Amino acid sequence: MAKAVLRKPKKKSNPLKSAKIELVDYKDTALLRKFISDRGKIRARRVTGVSVQEQRQIARAVKNAREMALLPYSSSAR
């Protein structure tokens, strides 16, 4: 019988810490696009590797940017 090997997944590096960003701004669309999937959804924390507080800042900034028409609500590709 083969023994099951449990591996701990590698901890993702925080993209905001590496870019030295402490406050997420809704006007920084280049940064916010990194946290949005190709379908227009906000990526999950486990995918991006940010903290809980940073994820909340990102979500709020993305929603504000969408409201200001800086980012699309969804992808137009169908």
Indicate the CATH topology of the domain at 18-68: 30s Ribosomal Protein S18
What is the makeup of the main sheet?
none
Can you identify the CATH class of the domain at 18-68? Few Secondary Structures
- Mean pLDDT across all amino acids: 88
Known CATH architecture of the domain at 18-68: Irregular
Total beta strands: 0
> Level of helix content?
25-40%
What structural class is derived from the secondary structure elements? mainly alpha
Radius of gyration: 16 Å
Shape summary: elongated
Number of helices: 4
- SSE order, as H and E? HHHH
Low-confidence stretches: none
End-to-end Cα distance, whole Å, is: 47 Å
Beta content: under 5%
CATH superfamily (homologous) name of the domain at 18-68: Ribosomal protein S18
Family: Belongs to the bacterial ribosomal protein bS18 family.
Organism: Flavimobilis marinus
GO molecular function, one term: structural constituent of ribosome
Protein name: Small ribosomal subunit protein bS18
Structure description:
This protein has 78 residues and is mainly α. The chain has a domain at 18-68: 30s Ribosomal Protein S18, CATH 4.10.640. It has helices spanning 15-18, 29-32, 45-48, 52-67. The longest helix is centred in the C-terminal third of the chain and has 16 residues, at 52-67. The protein starts with 14 loop residues before the first helix and ends in an 11-residue tail after the last helix. The mean pLDDT is 88. Belongs to the bacterial ribosomal protein bS18 family. It comes from Flavimobilis marinus. This is Small ribosomal subunit protein bS18.
